[in-house]
Protein: PAPS_reduct domain-containing protein
Organism: Mesorhizobium ventifaucium
Amino acid sequence: MTVRLIATTPEIAALLAANAPVAIGVSGGKDSHAAAVAIVAYLNRIGHAGPRLLIHADLGIVEWNDPLPMCDKLANHTGIDLVVVRRKAGGLMERWESRWESSKVRYETLSTVTLVPCWSTPAMRFCTSELKTHVITAELKRRFPAQKIINVTGVRRQESAARAKATIASPDADRRIWTWRPIIDWSENAVFRYIEISGLPPHPAYRVFGMSRVSCRFCIMSNVADLTAASAQSEAHDLYRQMVRLECSSSFAFQGARWLGDIAPDLLDAPGRTALADAKRAALARMAAEKRVTKPMLYVKGWPLRMLTDDEADILAGVRREISDLLGLRSGFLDRASIHDRYAELLAAKPPESEAA
């Protein structure tokens, strides 16, 4: 097969020349598919003799049914072992649900000022950092102790404004794992052409389901068309209802202002549609209440920084009562005196500034 242009750097070239281990992240999506096949061909061409593996982070029930079979096919095609890693505490759906439970407890105990959304966001992608990056790097360091490792990803600059700023390669903090983005300048058309040449079909979500991107069934980055296409697949229906239930119980829409429950309301029963309508009303009321909390009162690193004034404590008490009633929370600290006591307790528990520094 013709080897397309592979982006590299002197640091990556030196590591390959030293036969450093190469781990290729695969998700079942088109970019990691193309990157895996292209990099194996490239490594063969340059005579790389170090360890190689494909590595897949399993996100649990949020994934399509096909990623693991797709990754198995890639492993057979390339002749490289596939390693599957998972977060010990559960998949992404479990992470979203546990985050909401934690948010409730923190609010009820006045360990934060406002409720924390359960969902990951484009600006806070713990779905990637916790369930992919962390578990993959931990496994690589375990397998290859005291070695420098190359971690290949299929990131492309064309994918988004954020990824347009990506570099070809970058090291982690201790410079042990180098993330290499060899197809960073490939176009989407080039990716699909390369997959066709490889003889392995892409994930069916592209050509059969009509998705423009393949990650989770319902992704925080998905557009309306992809969310609609995903909801049309029977394999996604149970997950859809579970995610909408979390929207309803939390009053936080899946994509900020976009409710997943609005994508395919026909998949919900009558009580589910009623719960969604109630959640939207609760969300509006919650946001209106939270606006009464002034900026100097909001949670920041090191919070609390000071005691509240009586007026601020009264505002916070009123907001906490309203939100707790809206969402059925068992919150304490619902009046001025108890809020002052709680802030004093939190301030007394903070280490001295010399220790904190």
